[in-house]
Automatic annotation (TrEMBL):
<dbReference type="InterPro" id="IPR002048">
    <property type="entry name" value="EF_hand_dom"/>
</dbReference>
<dbReference type="InterPro" id="IPR018247">
    <property type="entry name" value="EF_Hand_1_Ca_BS"/>
</dbReference>
<dbReference type="GO" id="GO:0001750">
    <property type="term" value="C:photoreceptor outer segment"/>
</dbReference>
<feature type="domain" description="EF-hand">
    <location>
        <begin position="125"/>
        <end position="160"/>
    </location>
</feature>
<dbReference type="InterPro" id="IPR011992">
    <property type="entry name" value="EF-hand-dom_pair"/>
</dbReference>
<keyword id="KW-0677">Repeat</keyword>
<feature type="domain" description="EF-hand">
    <location>
        <begin position="83"/>
        <end position="118"/>
    </location>
</feature>
<keyword id="KW-0479">Metal-binding</keyword>
<protein>
    <submittedName>
        <fullName>Guanylate cyclase activator 1C</fullName>
    </submittedName>
</protein>
<dbReference type="Pfam" id="PF00036">
    <property type="entry name" value="EF-hand_1"/>
</dbReference>
<keyword id="KW-0106">Calcium</keyword>
<dbReference type="GO" id="GO:0005509">
    <property type="term" value="F:calcium ion binding"/>
</dbReference>
<dbReference type="InterPro" id="IPR028846">
    <property type="entry name" value="Recoverin"/>
</dbReference>
<keyword id="KW-0519">Myristate</keyword>
<dbReference type="GO" id="GO:0008048">
    <property type="term" value="F:calcium sensitive guanylate cyclase activator activity"/>
</dbReference>
<dbReference type="Pfam" id="PF13499">
    <property type="entry name" value="EF-hand_7"/>
</dbReference>
<keyword id="KW-0449">Lipoprotein</keyword>
Length: 185
């Protein structure tokens, strides 16, 4: 609906992102260290660091320890064009730390603690947040969230959607990509 028309045609866009990527990352391979620098997330406490490493690992599709240009483009596509479902799948992957296809309370709790370590202030404790989510969307009450429960539950609940989106703000990633890092050191 209109929004996409304002974007340059794909090849030009690709070129645009390629120059940005190469400017931020002349080697063509973005390391975890550079990723944190790019997002201005250095000097986090250990919990926050573990969390950002998980975000990095999800973007690092071939798991070679670097984000290359294609992986970078895949991330941009998710941020710009991804449908809500695709984005929620991404968050699900982020929260499902052991990758067994379900989010349990421990996983959600540790994610939310890490988010607090990064963002600081929240008006709920990590425990309250976790219990609230399970009360709302663990439909069969088995203490685990499947992908369906997660997507259906979050889609139906605006507050929850906002909380989840804030847990790792993909639009901030895009802002950094568009404008470059806030203060180049
Ligand atoms: Ca990679
Ligand atoms: Ca799990
Ligand atoms: Ca369940």
């Amino acid at each position: 609906m209109g929004a996409q028309e304002s974007l340059p045609d794909p090849p030009a866009q690709m070129h645009h992102y390629y120059s940005k990527f190469m400017r931020e990352c002349p080697s063509g391979l973005l390391s975890l260290h550079e990723f944190k620098k790019l997002l201005d997330l250095q000097g986090l406490d250990p919990q926050g660091d573990v969390y950002i490493k998980r975000v990095f690992d999800i973007f690092d599709l071939n798991q070679d320890g670097f984000i290359d240009f294609l992986e970078f483009i895949a991330a941009i596509n998710l941020v710009i064009r991804g449908k809500i479902d695709q984005k929620l799948k991404w968050y699900f992957k982020l929260y499902d730390a052991d990758g067994n296809g379900c989010i349990d309370k421990k996983e959600l709790l540790s994610i939310f603690r890490a988010i607090q370590a990064i963002n600081g202030y929240t008006n709920m404790t990590a425990e309250e947040f976790t219990n609230m989510i399970f009360q709302k969307i663990d439909i069969n009450n088995d203490g685990e969230l499947t992908l369906e429960e997660f997507i259906n539950g979050v889609e139906k609940d605006e507050d929850l959607m906002e909380l989840i989106t804030k847990s790792f703000d993909l639009s901030n990633v895009l802002k950094v990509i568009q404008n470059g890092r806030r203060n180049s050191v």
